[in-house]
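Suppose you are handed only these lines of text.
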Amino acid sequence: MQVNLPNTEIILRLEHVTFSYTSSPVVEDVSFSVSKGDFLAILGPNGSGKSTLLKLIAGLIKPDSGQIEIFGQDIERFNQWPRIGYMPQVSSVRPGFPATVEEVVLSGRVGRKGFFRRLDKADKSKVQSILEELRIDHLSRHVVGELSGGQYQRVMLARALACDPDLLLLDEPTASVDPETRRSIMELLNRMRSERGLSIINISHDLDTIRGYISRVIIFNKRIIFEGTPEEMDVHLATQQQILEAIAASDHHHG
Ligand SMILES: Nc1ncnc2c1ncn2[C@@H]1O[C@H](COP(=O)(O)OP(=O)(O)OP(=O)(O)O)[C@@H](O)[C@H]1O
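From them, the structure of the protein bound to adenosine-5'-triphosphate can be written out as follows.
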């Protein structure tokens, strides 16, 4: 099921990135890179800084020190944000205004088209096909405030996909959907990856769901505890218990 693309073009590079909200860092001296077509899973315990790491890459917060480069450009100067689809962790908070599913997903296309270009029929049919793939096309005229958690999650994923991203940043995209939908989402992502070299960074708690699709794994707890292929992880950290022990050891080590 894995796709091995010959292309090794590096599209994201983090060098010694550190970030704190208050006095102590939640992301500390983190360096890694992502190549075109990579499907990187970031695993780690609650509160380990995974969402913060993704927000740094999405340009929502700035590192205290270190560098981030996206598509070969320093993030400070990066101006191609429509190439990046970001799906934040979906909370129960919904937009206060009565937008429909179709409107919310269409809004994801605005950046790619340019703000002064009108969205047209082609945009609508693109959105429709994404909704179909995610099995929420029957909800397109529903107001997002009325959706279940899992449905809303898929709307946010559809919105991130609507801009035809080259890099997709997903914060627990399948946390509240049923196992069958979860698999169909993974299949869709896998297809986009093999068809057009989409690169994906996926924060997850659920290694079992994503294991067959990912090309690399980072186990994260403020720092990188492990980085490698799923096969390498199997050799070094074969059980969930070993992963937890490695995390506990890193906590102890870094105080
Ligand atoms: N806006 C904020 N202001 C202050 N502290 C924050 C803020 N957001 C997150 N934190 C803290 O930073 C740490 C890392 O949070 P983050 O959400 O990045 O972790 P996470 O690994 O994504 O957690 P989870 O798996 O629970 O989503 C936590 O201790 C959290 O309480």
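What can we learn from it? The chain has a mean pLDDT of 87. Residues 12 and 34 are 5 Å apart (CA to CA).
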